[in-house]
Design goal:
By secondary structure, the chain is mostly helical. It folds into two domains: about 130 residues, no CATH class; about 100 residues, no CATH class. Helix content is about 55%, strand content about 0%. It has 14 helices and no strands. Helix 3 runs antiparallel to helix 8 and helix 9 crosses helix 10. The radius of gyration is 28 Å and the shape is elongated. The chain starts with a helix and ends with a helix.
């Protein structure tokens, strides 16, 4: 049993990593069997598809990240545990301790979190804790429960850090959720992300916005032919984009009989 971690490590060292070998383009798409097919692509379509593909991946990654952001206090259970172990849960609650910092702005919480580490709060001697408390906590925060924070029994030094870290992450996540579109984003990325917060199925919204970029509703704007867009995306090595955004257009170019193609596509 003691050697199991070593065996697991050696197994990882001796096991060869699997390297996928994607099929060549000519085995999947009929147009890829033509000689020099990449050289005959429309330059405008290629640049347009390249911009849309880049924005598509950026939007998908950003939304996936945002979907995992939490607005809950992850460390609140630790605060409750400390108060319970010291027999203080009947006199003060975790909610009351968090509420002390309600009036402190987000930037003050961020500075207090940084000062917590710089002042080495967890190593502060008992006689100095009151002084260090005032050098860390934002001005305006009530001192009603300062003795609770300065009590280091049962890991009590963690109380101040737990609350400051939770509040700092909450304000940071709220800012990210509020500003999905950023100033430095490309016009294509801004368009794909527009209105995405109001739809439950973000993937479908991203796909529909990509199609609108390739084929604008305004007839005065130049459009990209979807057959040409499939070729450009394949030339860029973006098969995932083709299958997720233009599956029906790609179906017309796949290798094999029409009935076989239909069964294979809908069976994926």
């Amino acid at each position: 049993m003691e050697r199991l971690p070593y065996y697991a490590y050696m197994l990882g060292q001796e096991t060869k990593q699997y390297k996928p070998k994607p099929a060549e383009d000519e085995k999947l798409f009929t147009f890829a069997s033509e000689p020099d097919w990449k050289d005959n692509l429309d330059p405008f379509s290629m640049e347009r598809v390249k911009a849309v593909v880049s924005a598509y991946h950026a939007a998908d990654a950003r939304i996936r990240f945002i979907k995992h952001l939490s607005t809950d206090f992850k460390r609140q259970k630790d605060v409750v545990r400390i108060l319970f172990s010291r027999g203080q849960l009947n006199t003060v609650s975790a909610e009351q301790l968090y509420a002390l910092f309600d009036a402190a702005p987000a930037d003050s919480i961020r500075k207090a979190r940084r000062a917590l580490t710089e002042n080495k709060w967890h190593l502060t001697p008992k006689k100095n804790r009151g002084f260090v408390w005032f050098s860390i906590v934002p001005s305006g925060v009530s001192t009603e429960y300062m003795d609770v924070f300065c009590d280091f029994r049962n890991g009590g030094f963690r109380l101040l850090g737990d609350i400051l870290c939770d509040l700092d992450e909450l304000y940071s996540n709220q800012k990210i959720l509020k500003n999905i579109v950023r100033d430095g984003d490309s016009p294509e990325l801004k368009f794909i992300l527009s209105g995405i917060r109001h739809f439950s199925d973000y993937k479908e919204t991203i796909v529909s916005n990509c199609i609108a970029l390739l084929s604008p509703p305004d007839r005065r704007e130049r459009r990209v032919d979807f057959d040409e867009a499939v070729k450009c995306a394949v030339a860029l090595g973006e098969r995932r984009f083709v299958l997720e955004v233009m599956p029906y257009s790609a179906l017309e170019w796949t290798v094999g009989p029409a009935e076989k193609k239909k069964r294979r596509w809908f069976g994926r």
